[in-house]
Write a structure and sequence with these properties.
By secondary structure, this protein is mainly alpha-helical. The protein is built from seven helices and no strands. It has one domain. The protein has helices at 2-40, 55-72, 77-100, 107-128, 140-158, 163-186, 193-214.
Length: 225
């Protein structure tokens, strides 16, 4: 009787154990799927937007673009003089607005300056990509012209030259270039001895002026990162 009871109870025990195991598997599977579902539902954080450049950063960027254009010859002395004259006007207006508001710009003033800088940016691009380019030639006059433009470009990029100073220097260069062109046209493409002497004298004066403006106490404020 006892022997029969043990064997008859064994299948029941097996079934009970199997049921427990299945229940554990289902519970484990359910918790894993729930965990996976929860992790997949977590939204991916959006990348942080880059802060917009400040007025000072945009100003410095535009000066760098002008300097590169002068260095490469994409900007003529006349084009550079006009660009820097406009840049000087924006800087002057910005400084006046800051002085009137305790060193800060109002929202309306920022909007106005930003609009002017947008116009400047388009003008720089237009002047750098038109058909006008600076041609220096392999002669002594041409080499000095190129050297002086390189010195001006370096001064703009480093901040040693303000926009106003650059405008005046490039206006001086424009006058020399115009005179050289007229003299060459009158003499079949060449300069006579007297004309070379006169141009050399003017280039000497321009060279001293570049040095003076690069080493005075006026500098272009550099934008903070």
């Amino acid at each position: 009787m006892k022997f029969t009871w043990k064997w008859s109870a064994l299948p029941v025990a097996v079934l009970l154990l199997g049921g427990v195991a299945v229940a554990q598997d289902q519970s484990s599977s359910g918790s894993q799927s729930s965990s996976q579902s929860g992790s997949s539902a977590t939204p991916t954080p959006a990348p942080a937007e880059k802060p917009k450049p400040t007025i000072e950063q945009r100003k410095e960027n535009q000066q760098d673009r002008i300097a590169n254009g002068v260095k490469s010859g994409e900007l003529t002395a006349g084009e550079t003089a006009k660009l820097e004259k406009k840049e000087a006007a924006i800087n002057k207006e910005t400084a006046a607005d800051r002085a009137a508001n305790g060193g800060k710009l109002t929202a309306s003033e920022k909007k106005q300056v930003n609009k002017q800088q947008n116009q400047m940016s388009k003008q720089i691009y237009k002047d750098k990509h038109n058909a006008n380019t600076a041609h220096y030639g392999n002669n002594k006059v041409g080499q000095r012209r190129e050297n002086q433009q390189d010195r001006i470009a370096q001064g703009v990029k480093s901040g040693q030259l303000t926009a106003g100073e650059t405008a005046k220097l490039e206006k001086q260069q424009k006058g020399i270039n115009k005179q050289v062109t007229a003299d060459r046209k009158a003499n079949g493409g060449k300069l006579n001895a007297s004309e070379k002497k006169q141009i050399n004298k003017e280039q000497n004066a321009a060279s001293k002026n570049i040095y003076k403006k690069k080493h005075n106490d006026k500098t272009q404020p550099q934008a903070k990162p």
